[in-house]
Every structure is written in C-alpha cells, then in structure tokens.
Design a protein that fits this description.
Blueprint lengths: L1 H10 L2 H5 L2 H13 L7 H5 L9 H41 L5 H21 L1 H26 L2 H23 L10 H26 L6 H32 L5 H8 L1 H5 L1
Length: 267
Amino acid sequence: YDYAHMYGQFHWGPSAWMMYIPATIAIAYVLYVKKGDTTRVSTACAAAFGKRERKWHKYALILIDIFVVFGIMGGIGASIGLEIPVISQIISTMIGTENTMGMKLLTLLVLLVLFGGTVYMGLDKGIQKLSTINIYVVLVFLGIMFLVGPTLYIIDSEINSVGMLFSNFIRMSTYTDPNVQSGFPQTWTMFYWGWWLAYMPVMGLFVARISRGRTIRQVITGEVIWGSLGCMSFFAVMGGYSLYLQKTGTIDLVSILNEYGQEAAIT
C-alpha cells in the first residue's frame, strides 16, 4: 500500500518534468534570444554542429524533425490507447449503453474535433482557454473527493509517500530488478521514461511558446515544481481514495482490474 501510493507520484513527478527542460530551454533560446523565425526542434539543435556549415548538416536536421514527428505520434498514440477505452466506458456507464467499438470511435472523433478546434483557434483563444477550464474542473473534482473521501487517510498517506519518495528516489531511478526479474521497472518506469521522451519535443515547443519574458530559472521552477505538484496532487487524492476502498474491503479494485481492465476499475 505504501509503495502503491508513492510510485505513481514518482513516475509522474520530477523525473517526468525534468525531461522536458532541455527542449524547452533550447527552443526558447532560439526563439527569444537568437530571434529565430521557426519553432522546429531541429533549429534549436543546429548550434550543436558548430558555426561551420557542412553538407550533411542539412540532412541531419531533416532527420531530427522526422524523429520528432514519429516521437510525437508515439506519445499521442500511447495516450489515446490508454484514455479512449476509459472515457468511452465512463460515458457508457453514465448513459446505460454497451461500450462497443462504435462508442470508442465516437469518443475518439469527439476528442479529435475538440482538440483540433482549439489548435485551430490558436494558443490564446483555444488551447489556453481549454487548459484553464480543465484546471478548474480538476481542482473542483479533487477538492470534492478530498473532503467527501477519507480525508485523514489521504493526508497520512501523502505525508508518508513524500518521505518515501525523498528516501528512495535514487534507488527507484536506478532500479532494474536483475535478480527477481519481475519486469516491473521495464513495464512501468522505463515505459513512462519512453513516454516522456516522446512528448519532450511537443512539450518543449508548447512551454517555450507560453514562457516569453520569463527567465530560465522561472521556467525550470515552473515545470519541475508546479508541474510535479499538479500530477502528484491527483495521485495523492485519487490514489489514496482508491487504496482506502481496497484496504477497507469496500470495493475489490484489484480483482476488477485483473479481470476486466482499468476502465472497469475506474468506473
């Protein structure tokens, strides 16, 4: 129970957000210091080749952009693969219908229209407004769960998890499980690292665009501290509440998860 509550915060905490910093700083430097006219990641990497231009530099930069596109596709693909079954199951449960493949495709279509529309509207009118609405909804949701749920247990669990996270951070970051070979670090920790790396270019572009006028220290602080706190707060409340249900025998979430999958356990 201790490690279950803490490990999600480890995976989505500082380790994740620190991976976005190199791309963010490099792109922001090109945009705002060097006055570059493009947001391509390859432009930020061009300085690594030195001042003397060679023939192969052009092809290397094109190759970087290709890798970035495939990385973004992989990151978004993983997100869609994890999110669509859960969202469609929640909708099906609420309206009392079967969670069919058609429901999943309809959910995917709605999300594509929603996010495509916000991107078309631009950073300020579209993405920023959608993000702001999302933040307020999440804060209200977490506040209700924190107050209605086992508040003291959530607080105790989070204090315990913060201590464990600080005490075991290096151990978990280098944990490869060579003897037992349970596959846990490969299936979870390394999977998440690959996911964050795939998202690094697009997150670097996004954060760089909204960080104009801020110092490098402010950008790093904002990403590592506030980004981590946002994710960790969700795991603290929802993870604590879920573990409480399992521990008290209110709901056997482990059995539901093993038999029917994560979408059934969530709903």
